[in-house]
Amino acid sequence: MGKTIYSAGQVKLQKLLIQTREKAGLTQTALAGKLKRPQSFVSKYETGERRLDLVELAEICKAMEVSLVDFVKKFERA
């Protein structure tokens, strides 16, 4: 498997992050505010321009009021 940020798994993660944010009723700007980050931070990981580490993913899940465990389970099922 190559090192491209656009692997099938990365695209699946991006889609799930967007779906989860939208289900939480949050815009990119609103989520960024909860994270105390610029809106571009959310945009960049949702478009695949930036990858997330586990700590960042946990913070994002918390801001969307979704447990990290539930998020990972959804990712594995997708």
| Rg result | 12 Å
How far the N terminus sits from the C terminus, by CA atoms, comes to 19 Å
Unreliable residue runs: none
Q: Describe the biggest sheet?
A: none
Quickly count the helices: 5
Helix content: 55-70%
Given the C-alpha coordinates, what overall shape results? globular
Structural class: mainly alpha
Q: Please report which band the strand proportion falls in: under 5%, 5-15%, 15-25%, 25-35%, 35-45% or over 45%.
A: under 5%
The average pLDDT score comes to 94
Strand elements, count:
0
Order of helices and strands: HHHHH
Structure description:
- The chain is mostly helical and 78 residues long.
- It has helices spanning 8-23, 28-35, 39-47, 54-63, 68-77.
- The longest helix has 16 residues, at 8-23.
- The protein is globular.
- The two termini are 19 Å apart.
- The model has no long low-confidence stretch (mean pLDDT 94).
Notable features of this structure?
0% strand; mainly alpha; 68% helix; 5 helices; 78 residues
Give the helix/strand layout:
Blueprint: H1 8-23, H2 28-35, H3 39-47, H4 54-63, H5 68-77
Helix pairs in contact: 2-3
Summary of the model, kept short:
This protein is mostly helical and 78 residues long.
